[in-house]
Every structure is written in structure tokens, then in C-alpha cells.
Amino acid sequence: xxxxxxxxxxxxxxxxxxxQHLVKTIGIPSIASSPHESLQNGNWVKxxxxxxxxDVVDIRNLSLVYTLAxxxxxxxxxxxxxxxxxxxxxxxxxxxxxLRKPWVMISVNDDEDLHFRKAEFDPEDCPVDCSKPCEKVxxxxxxxxxxxxxxxxxQGTNAHVGxxxxxxxxxxxxxxxxxxxxxxxxxxxxxYIRDVAATAELIKRDDVDALEIHTSGRQTSPxxxxxxxxxxxxxFLKLVAVSLPDIGETTIASMNTMYSIMEPHxxxxxxxxxxxxxMSGDIGRGATRETIAFALRMAAxxxxxxxxxxxxxxTNAHTVDGLKKAGLFQKPSSLxxxxxxxxxxxxxxxxxxxxxxxxxVAYGGYAxxxxxxxxxxxxxxxxxxxxEEHPDHLLQALKEALSLVxxxxxxxxxxxxxx
Length: 419
Hints:
TIM Barrel
């Protein structure tokens, strides 16, 4: 037994050394490359944990893996326990390899928003013949249903009395895919708005760096009310982001109005998150087209307000290719001429002091999916909660994360990232 223990410890040690070696040799940014420089250079990468995703175990591990992969920012729910989980993951990663710290961003909303809702239904009300399509379609494994008949057989009865389980609220992030597939129309969505006072207190913590406000853009009065409520805490931030959908011809006017509201108390850079197709990056190649089209429209106008542009909504492994085809990838803003040259961006990032037209990309559902399947495998096989205690799984998860983050960061392609 002692021999097996020593062999096990040696195996873990070697696996962790492989993690350290991969990070050091592939070219992950160090302290010399700040998140703000990434925004300027057009190679900013943000991990979206989810404005409503509150599974602190997964969030900790995701933050650990993507910190090692070199992201510039980690966006999470405006909840104290979630923020603590993100920072714990970051600090564990930095103990493994001394990387610079990514910014921690919290997300709030000014009104009803798809990102701030949870699915809800009564599992005991589900019919006995339900095939449970909601459980199958959920990308977050946030629905778990078990027939109560099975659980009660030991008590001498086979009578069906519905299901037990239901929605795991901490895992549900509001994508809504379960709602239309329910054959009995039993599922509804519960929406909420983050508390302004609680958000202001979170911002004042020394482990929160940035804020993101989700807005529909159609009415700016709720935005002003939220901004005014946060006024005293804004000075603590390094970045303020506004996430908004494409609302057509009124988009630019709405952005300008919101910027005029922010500007008097804005003491840091601001960013516009272009949410092309919300919460759909894990669906496939086509999901990224809307956000690229949105970026093209924004980049082509001189009337938009000050601030970096960043893609989100439908972003995945195909997004950078789409940006290159559109002539937007890491292209200096001074050179943007509303033309599309598929080849001019292939050589690498520009050597220009001008900021890039598109500052970077935020990855949400797709980023969580490719690492999440390894986290699920680890938990089912090992039963462990901390991925660093299982370095083989950490190495696999890191390779997945690097394969995505590296499309923006230009990591050394000679390094093997075979999955």
C-alpha cells in the first residue's frame, strides 16, 4: 500500500509539472502584459462564468483553468460567494504558475434580461409518461429528475407520485432551452434584478475589478437609475462594460445616451459588449455569425461613443475565423476602411499604437462546456471537488482552454494541445 501511495504521489507530481511546463512554454502572458494592454492590442479574452450561474465548485475550477490559460478577465454573478470562488480559483492557479492576475468582473442588470432568470417547475406535477426532454436539453446539467416510484419501492409501494429533483437553481443560467421542449408546458422562467446596494458593496471589495451592466438598450431610464445608484462605487473600478443586443437603427443612439449618463463619473476605460446571439456559443458554427455582423456594423460607423468593442453571444471556436474573414481581427482602428480582406490579418497582431477595432472576445457557454465535461468526468471518477488535486484532469482541461484562448492570443502553435 505504501508503494502504491508513493507511485500515486509521483504520478500527481509529474502531471502537475506537465501543467507548469505547458503554461511556461506555450507563451502565456506574464505580469508584463496587463489586461488593459490586451484591450489595446485586440487580444483581450474574457471568460463568462454566467450572470446567473452560481455553482461555486465549478466556478472555482473554471477560474483556475482559464487563469492558467491566460484570460484577461473572469465575469461572474454579482454574489459574494461567487466572487470569492472566482478569486480562490485565480489564486490557486497563480500558485501553480506565477501569472498576472486577470480582472474579476461582476454582472448586473438594469431591467428584465435573459441572463438574469432561472427555470422553475414542480417535479411532482410532471406526468408519469414524461420522457424528460428538459433534462436532456439542458446545457448546464441543471435539471435532475428521478421517478419517485423507484425511490419508494423499498417502502412496499409502486404507486407513481411524480418526480423528485427538478431545477438545480445554482446551475441554471437562464438559457431557456428547457421551456419550449416541455411537452406539457410546465416550465416557466423566474426573472430578477440584482440589488443595487449589494452591488455597490461588492464593487468596493478589493477583489472586484470591473463591472458589467446588461441592458436591453431600448429604454435608458432604468440604466440611469442603476448608474446613479452605483455612483459612489464606480471610482473603485478598472473597467466598466455595457452588454447590449443589436436593436437595429436605434442602437447607436442608445449607446450615446448611455455614455452621456456614464461619462461624468467614469474614471476608467469603458467597453461595449456586443451580445449578438445570447447564450448560444455551444450550439455550433452558425451561432457566432450574428455577433460578427453586429461588430461589423459598429466598426463601420464613426457615430458610436467612446469605448472598446468586445464580442459575446454565440462566441465559440469559430469566432476568430469569422473575424478574420470580416477583416476585423486585431486590425488597428485607424486602418478600418469598411472593406473585407480575408488575408491581411493572418500574419499576427498589428505593430501599431492604434487600438484594435475589436478589442477581444468573451467566451461563455462554449468555454464552460469544453472544460465542464472534464470537470464532470473528474467528479464522477474521482469524487474530488478541486481540480488541482487531480493534475491529469487539470492538464486535459487546460489543453481544452488553451485551444480556445489561443485562437485570440497567438500562443506557440508548435506546442502540442492534442486532446
